[in-house]
Design a protein that fits this description.
With about 900 residues, the protein is an alpha/beta fold. The protein is built from 28 helices and 34 strands. Helices cover about 45% and strands about 20% of the residues.
């Protein structure tokens, strides 16, 4: 089949992706080969592809395709996450549009709607990943709420409960008033806000006169008094919570507030009399040193309340409105209440002052517009200290490696300050907690099935019947299923020690964002050691955040997040993959610019045109010319060197740099130099044939280059590899190994010499350019003294279009000279130059070199420098001196020759 004149990504991509699927080229089953396993970070089941997914999955596909070509049994497992909060919110919104409220439905009815939504919208993102070229084993596609994964989650919950690691308790939690659910600490995002600090008056109850007032002031007490009486000043950012105040707290060591000890104060507007308690928790330096204590609505206040046995008054409903536990503002939204109470306090003369204040406010990670409310709630928790103890050493000891390693400290800091994980969510969509209550809320059992729960309950109380059992209404945190992902994908919880878990686990690499290092990475490590006794993956590659070229995070509201599918339509999948990777150093933020995708598309065209050029040559069984011999020897050496460099970069997970190394090899070395060295000449407008030996080598080089490029650019490389030679049906570049010998010392010497040869050719071309001499006009090249590059004369003559290369004692007076290292070359140009202009140019160069030499000599004349500087530094300065002196002598000689012309 003839190759099209232009590269058309649409035709090529759809054709080869279907070919790969038809021939099961992504499929993996355990066998005798070394396994290479990646599990996909499961995207939300109803999500669509965004730039972060593009980056993450491009990197995964590069690693998987490379592993296949290394002969490993590569297995990339895809799947999606049920995303409790996000999916339930979408279903609730859809129902609201139909005039249906969630709580008008039974749980079963709601779940029917949720499954319908999931089946309708789920899996779109996985189909989109195919457009990118993702080589997942699609037959293994999993879902965190499918049967196997659900069974695994319930088994683990029961096991951890039986081990005493899961418990139920009344605790202060982070509450999302929009999603109406508790969140874990890690799901709270803190944002700095410009707020206010409200200074409120709490009048001292029953105090008409203060004994020894002046003496108390002299001792450092700050006493507030107005026409209504004595009062304390409390500074708060949340005046709407005063209805829940049950104490005011001072530090017993605070000299400002000794006069308040043992007294009672009156909550403003509410008129509740509360005690003044003492606790060293209060910061003497913050505000007035008087702290309002609201045990139901602040974590630290809750702890104070427990210590001092204070009453707890919950003044908020679950949706963030004021509850009927408050004597005022019932039913008002908490933020509307803040505005109103501020106004009312001022009007009542109970506000001392309001000042601007910057503080950090926690927001829901899933509902970024919703401020979290600390709330006292009965929830299920997982004790985390045990897990922190088993998960920290492997990472810190580099048994499990992080790339970049800087994230080890982030990980360590979190684990060393671990808090228990709130794992229950007040949602219906998700894994329902397998706890069954009977005899009210106090008695319960935990079991995998209702039948098992009944047996356990009857062991405690024989009168219990199935009708008495009521399963917990809450669902588990989505991450409680995701943390089992590398195990549950191979059914390692339900069937420990099965063939697949033994073969594929631990997986090889995890590619993820650093923003879920706590949510997911750390917890998977914990689960791996708890249930398999081994790490879940050997390496973690942290990608950066994709930003626009101005450094802004991509978002729909800014309109700076391109649609990945539209990019693929415009630039082709290979072009987009390359554009992503050119801007993607590990762990650093990516400044994405569409121009990089354009660069990727241009590179596709470069490869395509180079291939068409080579395949268009006529071939003859003639003797290989010297230039062909040199070129093929050099490019073989260059391939070995670059392959070695790429291997080293992959070991260090510097994937962007690995791509750049292959890109430069193809564009700069193969296209710009090698093909020019070997391409056949045109004589009288007729193309001449290339010798078969050089041609065969060129095709061999092209195949190696395609193999090196394939993990990065799978579609164009498959298309050209199939056209390179006749292939059998079912064959693919992705299953062909790439093995090259390590570079030798001779390779290094040869490539270094060719770099100088390139400089010689560039020197001649520069002379042509400066003198406006046509490329077709042949020139002579003079080498002054001795030609160290005689072995490469054939290449230099061809590339620079020369008649001859001559060794001379003195260069021609009309010659335009240049240096390569300390070797002088000259191109005689006859009457084609302006002598005066040439002399002026050389004198300017001479002046610059003499100034540079003076600086070097000054440094070398400094005895302290010569005595104290490292030996190699001094040697380098001496070399600079000798090189400069040689160049100065050559320039003076050239100037003199021109003047004598």
């Amino acid at each position: 089949m003839e190759l099209a004149s232009k590269y058309d990504p649409k035709e090529v991509e759809s054709k080869w992706y279907q070919y790969w699927l038809d021939h099961k080229l992504f499929a993996s089953k355990p066998d005798g080969r070394e396994p290479y396993t990646i599990v996909i970070p499961p995207p939300n089941v109803t999500g669509v592809l965004h730039m972060g997914h593009m980056l993450n999955n491009t990197i995964q596909d590069i690693l998987v395709r490379r592993a296949r070509m290394e002969g490993k049994n590569a297995c990339w497992v895809p799947g999606t996450d049920h995303a409790s909060i996000a999916t339930e919110a979408k279903v609730v919104k859809k129902l609201a549009g139909e005039g249906i409220k969630k709580h008008d439905l039974t749980r079963e009815q709601f779940l029917e709607h949720a499954w319908d939504w999931t089946h309708e919208h789920g899996g779109i993102i996985l189909k989109q990943l195919r457009r990118l070229g993702a080589s997942c084993d699609w037959d293994r596609t999993a879902f965190t709420m499918d049967e196997k994964r659900s069974e695994s989650v319930i088994k683990v919950f029961v096991d951890l409960y039986n081990k005493g690691l899961i418990y139920r308790g009344l605790r202060m939690v982070n509450w999302d008033p929009k999603a109406l659910t508790a969140l874990s600490t890690e799901e709270v995002i803190y944002k700095e806000e410009q707020s206010h600090l409200f200074h409120l008056k709490y009048y001292v109850d029953g105090l008409k006169a203060l004994d020894k007032e002046e003496a108390l002031k002299a001792e450092g007490n700050i006493i507030h008094k107005d026409e209504k009486g004595y009062y304390a000043v409390v500074a708060t950012t949340r005046p709407e919570t005063i209805m829940g105040d049950t104490a005011m707290c001072i530090n017993p060591k605070d000299p400002k507030n000794q006069w308040l000890k043992g007294r009672k104060v009156i909550v403003p507007l509410v008129n509740r009399v509360i005690p003044v308690i003492e606790d060293r928790y209060v910061d003497i330096e913050f505000g007035t040193g008087c702290l309002k204590v609201t045990p139901a609505h602040d974590t630290n206040d809750y702890m104070l309340g427990k210590s001092h046995k204070l009453e707890t008054i919950d003044i908020f409903n679950a949706d963030g409105t004021i509850s009927d536990q408050s004597p005022i503002y019932v039913g008002m939204d908490r933020f509307d209440c803040r505005k109103q109470i501020s106004k009312d306090l001022q009007e009542a003369g109970l506000m001392e002052r309001i000042e601007d204040y910057t503080n950090k406010v926690g927001y829901s990670e899933r509902n970024p517009d919703t401020a979290i409310e600390p709330r006292l709630s009965m929830q299920w928790f997982l004790s985390m200290q045990h897990f922190a103890d088993i998960a920290l050493p492997p990472v810190m000891n580099d048994q499990l490696k992080f790339y970049p390693a800087k994230y080890k400290n982030t990980y360590k800091n979190w684990l060393e300050n671990i808090q228990d994980w709130c794992i229950s969510r007040q949602l219906w969509w998700g894994h329902r907690i397998p706890a069954y209550y009977y005899n009210g809320q106090d008695d319960y059992v935990v079991a995998e099935t209702r039948e098992e729960a009944l047996k356990l309950a009857q062991q405690k109380d024989p009168k219990v019947t199935d009708a008495d059992l009521r399963q917990d209404e809450d669902a588990l945190d989505t991450w409680f299923s995701s943390w089992l992902w590398p195990i549950s994908l191979f059914d390692g919880i339900n069937n420990p020690g099965n063939e697949e878990i033994k073969y594929y686990y631990p997986t090889s690499d995890l590619v993820t964002g650093p923003d879920i290092i706590f949510f997911w990475v750390a917890r998977m490590i914990m689960a791996g050691y708890e249930y398999i006794g081994d790490m879940p993956f050997k390496n973690v590659y942290f990608t950066g955040i994709v930003r626009d070229k101005l450094g802004r995070k991509m978002s729909k509201s800014l309109g700076n997040s391109p649609d990945p599918i539209e990019l693929i339509e415009k630039f082709g999948a290979d072009g987009v993959r390359m554009g992503m990777m050119l801007s993607a150093p590990a762990g650093n933020d990516i400044l994405f610019d569409e121009a990089l995708c354009e660069q990727g598309r241009n590179f596709n065209n470069k490869i395509w045109n180079a291939f068409r050029l080579v395949k268009g040559w006529k071939v003859a069984d003639i003797e290989q010319p010297k230039a062909g011999k040199v070129a093929t020897r050099w490019f073989e050496a260059k391939l070995r060197q670059t392959n070695d460099e790429v291997n080293d970069l992959f070991k260090k997970y510097r994937i962007s740099e690995a791509l750049m190394a292959v890109y430069k090899l193809f564009w700069d070395e193969f296209s710009s130099w090698y093909l020019e060295m070997v391409k056949p000449a045109y004589i009288n407008g007729e193309p001449q044939p290339i010798d078969k030996q050089t041609y065969d080598k060129t095709l061999e080089f092209f195949e190696i280059l395609l193999k090196m490029l394939h993990p990065f650019m799978p579609f164009i490389t498959e298309e050209l590899w199939q056209h390179l030679y006749d292939r059998n049906e079912g064959e693919s570049i992705m299953r062909v190994s790439l093995k090259l010998d390590a570079p030798t010392k001779a390779d290094d010497e040869l490539t270094a010499q060719i770099e100088n040869v390139k400089q010689i050719v560039s020197g001649v071309r520069m002379v042509r350019n400066q003198k406006n001499i046509a490329p077709k006009e042949q020139l002579d090249l003079q080498v002054v003294g001795k030609n160290d590059y005689e072995a490469f004369n054939a290449v230099i003559i061809k590339m620079a279009n020369l008649n001859a290369i001559n060794v001379v004692a003195e260069k021609d007076a009309t010659a335009s000279a240049f240096m390569v290292g300390t070797d002088e070359f000259a191109v005689p140009v006859g009457d084609m130059i302006d002598v005066e202009a040439e002399i002026a140019k050389m004198e300017a160069q001479l002046q610059h070199l003499e100034g540079f030499l003076a600086g070097v000599k000054k440094k070398l004349s400094n005895e302290r420098f010569v005595a104290n500087a490292p030996e190699q530094v001094v040697a380098l300065e001496r070399k600079k001196q000798s090189d400069s002196e040689e160049k100065i002598a050559a320039l003076k000689e050239s100037i003199a020759a021109l003047r004598n012309k």
